[in-house]
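Input sequence (437 aa), recorded before submission:
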Amino acid sequence: MMSAMSQASLGLDDSEFGDDGEPDGDSIDGVRTLTVSQLVNEVNRALKDRFGRGIWVTGEIKGLNEGPGGHLYFDLVEEKNGKRSAVSVAFFTFQQDRLERKMQRSGIELATGIKVRIFGTLDMYAPSGRLSLKMSDIDPRFTLGELAMQREEVLRRLRESGRFDDNRSLDVPVVPLRIGLVTSVTTAAYQDFTKELGAGGVGFEVLALDVRVQGDDAPRMVAAAIRHFGGRDDIDVVVVIRGGGSKNDLAAFDSELIALAILDCEIPVFTGIGHEIDHSIADDVAHTFFKTPTAVARGLIDLVLSFSEDAESTWDEIVSAATGMLDAAGARVDGLAHRIAGSTRALVERLDERLRQRDHQVVTRARTLVDMAASRIDAMEQHIRLLDPALVLARGWSITRTATGAVVRSVADAPVGTEIITMVADGTITSTVTREG
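Predicted structure, token format:
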């Protein structure tokens, strides 16, 4: 509110004063007294005179809300050196269609937190006494430039930290079936992702955290969800998705808060944010980024199917290799068997020959031994025959025994009176010793 204005600042001219120089109407001590409506009219006249047909103003949108009749209202704010300045902005419906088409062509839309350069006329609204800027134009290039500068500043700080590739350096599990999903579960992005995932014929397990994906709360909620999944040991990959939107809606994913959460996450983060042409800082620092939520789902399916195909291919290679090894081993065994059979036959033949030779040697040796034994027996027989007493007696020898059968070898063996029996070749002679000789 304006507390006081000079005559010049109010746009008053001499026609509003009497001939004596005093203002028309009541006055006290020469100071003109106005009604409220007169004051409002004077203020609006002064604003028109000072700012002409309008003015461009830059600032950050705060408190955007829709009023009766679809009119939009917000504060345009500047904070500098710890001081806050604000002006109220009214964006009426009859201006919205034209400007929204203009913003859509540039990919932006009005939202709390974005910086804008808008054109409008200043006006004090009589029923409320509120000074506001009636918006009638916008410069999208300014907003895009601000978003780009903010984005580049965040990227610069992240690169200088030396951690830009931290998440990208992580290994994705061979079969990433357990998914931690960060998104708004009421959006088409969630439906597209889960539908595509379900159509892949793979048994994924999805645990979703419902978060805001645009607005002031989006960076904080998305970052918190990523950190939550990053602290679990039952998640294979974290997936962050959002459907298409304006550039300033998607600017939430250029937040340094989300980027740091991804870099701190010890689980690979996959992103699918916006449409084909969109790209965010979250995409830049993620392990893998895809163009759309549906593309993320297809990428996960392809990873699992690729592993399955590789496993089947590897199994086929193992079976083929094993079959080849078995065939080769069988061939070696057959060859070895043939060689063994041949060697065995040769060995048996050699053994048979050696046995025949040994048998011949044995037989020959046995015959020799038998002949030698026979010769020794003959010699012994002759010797024994020579020792035969009958033969000895036949040659004139005799054998004398006592009546008891003891052989008399000495005179002492037959004292006088001993009956003795003498054996000669053709009989025996019995006599008695009469004297010793």
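Checked by second reader. The CA atoms of residues 375 and 381 lie 10 Å apart.
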